[in-house]
Amino acid sequence: MNYDDFSENSPGKLVPTVFDAKAFLPDPLPPTFDLAEVTLTLAEASSALGELKGACRRLANPYIFIRPLQRLEAQTSSAMEGTHTTADKLAFAEAGFEDQSDTQTQEVSNYVRALRDATNTISDYPITHRIIRAAHFTLLNGVGRERGEDKLPGEFKRDQNMIGGRTLESARFIPVPPANTADCISRLEEFINADRDPKLALVDIALTHYQFETIHPFADGNGRVGRMLISLMAMSKGLLEVPALFVSPALEGVKDEYIDRMYRVSAFGEWAEWLNFFFGAVASTAKNTVDTIDRIIALQENFKDHARANSRSSNVLTAIDRLFDAPVVRASDLSQQLKVTDAAARSILAKLVELEIIAEVDVYPKAWISMEIIRLSEPANAVTRPFSMR
Question: Minimal CA–CA distance to 38: which of 390, 282, 278?
């Protein structure tokens, strides 16, 4: 780490850590910065989030439509950390077909589960270190030693970690030492749950994300948990009523700038530049998500119009809705969900095959998949607006 970058403008200090290296210990939030420098981008991001909130309210069952968005977030957030899978593999893992998934797919599936569990928890409790640690445990649990299971799932780091290098000498940034981590997270927890101006909720989310990544409290998985925290805070702060703010697809294409902006806060105190960048990502994400919701609604309506023209069964229509939540389905799943016999479930599935909404897959037990729904969760096929503050 280039210690010379850090001066009196740094919102923190360098402290000794192992092997004569120095780590960065950030000051508690909030910092001092000129709000006027971020007013325009904050207004744009807030407006875009308002449109997204309205779009979610148009949905009869928002959570059916959130599932493809969660899969896209899980894939792109994981890809930013070098973990890759495909939407169809992820859907099979979610459906319980362990023999169809590899360790990376399991890890991305864990991300989806961690996000859902944390979202359910914050409806009753504030965001605390327990929720953060539980999400981390779910993320890395059971993925095998080669994928990070030995990186203390659910526990704060015990050894000094680093960012952007293989050794402390070559690292671009050395985050908070293990001995200071619990205290830093406790201070961050206080900030997250403090009674602050609701008009500045997005500012608080941006500051929290920077602080969490700067603390880097875990041995692995910090980026994914930190981006998960953005979605959780958007709900807890009342910006959205459902978990629909997933910034990873917007950040993936500008990953280097994303990392650089946070570094420059630590080194040079460039808060306004970071906030403007973050608000740009939020605005882009919100607009893209509204587009994605429109595409999901259009696909659902297309499926249902096609079904109504060729079937009188209301169960077929209900089965279509269920596909958006779980695009890989077995006869036993459908029988349980619709409370019909196995024979009736298979008849419904046969009709959906006839309508070319699903296709049978060569797996055991027999399953069917809707590839058009799967494509909504494929990062390569996501319609996104690129952004950059450079």
Answer: 278
Q: Output the six-digit token pair for 183.
A: 């205290």
CA 67 – CA 377 distance, rounded (Å)? 9
| Three-state DSSP state, 13 | strand
Structure tokens at 352: 């959906």
* pLDDT(117) > 90: yes
pLDDT tens by residue, 6-53: 989 999 999 999 999 999 999 999 999 999 999 999 999 999 999 999
63 burial type by CB count under 10 A (0-12 exposed, 13-18 middle, 19+ buried): middle
Hey, which residues does 318 pair with through a beta bridge? none
* Structural domains of the chain in order of their starting residue, each with its CATH number: 3-291 (1.10.3290.10), 311-376 (1.10.10.10)
For residue 105, give every residue at least 6 positions away whose Cβ sits within 8 Å of its Cβ, in sequence order, or none.
85, 86, 89, 90, 92, 93
Token pair for 113? 């589960």
